[in-house]
Write a structure and sequence with these properties.
single chain; about 500 residues; FAD/NAD(P)-binding domain; D-Amino Acid Oxidase, Chain A, domain 2; Helicase, Ruva Protein, domain 3; 3 domains; 10-stranded mixed sheet; 8-stranded mixed sheet; globular
Amino acid sequence: MERYDLLVVGGGINGAGIARDAAGRRLKVLLVERDDLGAATSSASSKLIHGGLRYLEQFQFGLVAEALSEREVLLKTAPHLVRPVRFVMPHVAALRPAWMIRAGLIGYDYLARRHALEASRTVDLRTSPYGAGFKPEFGKGFVYSDCAVDDARLVVATARASADLGAAIRPRTACVAVESSEGLWRVTLRCEDGRETPVEARAIVNATGPWVGEFLANVVRRPAAFGVKLIKGSHIVVPRIYDGEHSCLLQNEDGRVVFACAYEGRYTLIGTTDVELRGAPGRCDASTEEVAYLCQAANRYFMRAVAPADVVWSYCGVRPLFDDGSANPSAISREYVLRVDAEDGAPPLLSVVGGKITVFRHLAEKALAALAPWFPDMPAPWTRHAAFPGGDLRGEPFDPFADFHVQRDFPWLPAGVRRALARRHGALTYEVLGRSTKLTDLGEHFGVELYAREIDYFVEREWARTADDVLWRRTKAGLHLDSARRAAVARYIEQHLS
């Protein structure tokens, strides 16, 4: 029977981050995920690496400072996946006074201790390009810096880093039974074809996200010593409603804020909602009420009105938040909680509750610190300055491709394909392209910038198995392709695997 130091259950960003950190400290690691990597909450975010400006209003200064610090780390270590974005916040005097917003932004800049990003400032939206698309009544605005991220690709890059360090990564493998015996966890794993495999582990990390309580109750068969609130967050994608590559932070009359972000060239991404989910977690969709809410929030500010009929794609994720007793879903703290259960001499089981994609690296570092008593010879933290696969570009964080020579080395590649590959793979673009010397070497073209050679790479090196894995997580090509081309991708993957 195979024995591991650490079994990580859950292949979202937190599970992948903990696996990476542990593998880099010479632990023998196995990560299992019953679906595709990042298939749930971690690929259904607002696609932002940010400090959480609104949390200053709730006096969560520690949470904001941690997130802003991690924002700088990710800018340097994953510059192909994390990029700076300027955010515009139109002023609505009836909702928050200008002095309050300006004071908050000064505090945000101070907590960030910025190295690469511009400071915040006040702008005249009637004359500034940042005012593009806003209704004329919004004359004053504020501009500040944060970052955008390809969330699903960050999960894959983190899992790839774990594998490069020796971790075993097994998507589509469920952990179905766990029992303690002689100081070890004896675990039964089930592959998607129904085959079961026993393994042993010295410790388990429960990084199952919305299923954190369900895993404890149904698999470990222990009651959770904490409460979890499941908060549903929905997003919609509509044809572009303003010009420019900046994003917008929109104040809403209910006290919440909504993001509107330039997305995939032709679209605007609008989100998110905060709706408590009753019952067990599972697949979720943006409700009719949530879509209407997001359209209404955007229509308050932009001249180009959007309606539910304009939505070309919607998605939602379920955030598992530590139940702090707050009745208002928006007021529940986004701080994560790590709980170690090692009762009656049993081996340790660490559960992860809450968190956000921005702070996953630091969360992983703290998780390993919590497990350190059971691994006394474990080396020191190491991830703060370690580049993710493809992230060693040797350019400035705000211009990561300054010294990245895909254009020089592959002049035959169309500009759009070069950019798409660089944004998805960074320095690993050379690995994807291999010895290709002409466009036909990339194989069948499925539309936009997607070619057969890259799909082969997703299957062989990034654990992709289905069309959804490729079209919605490894890329966002599904947003740009019609049903016939999406079906062609599915057929190609099926043929490749067979």
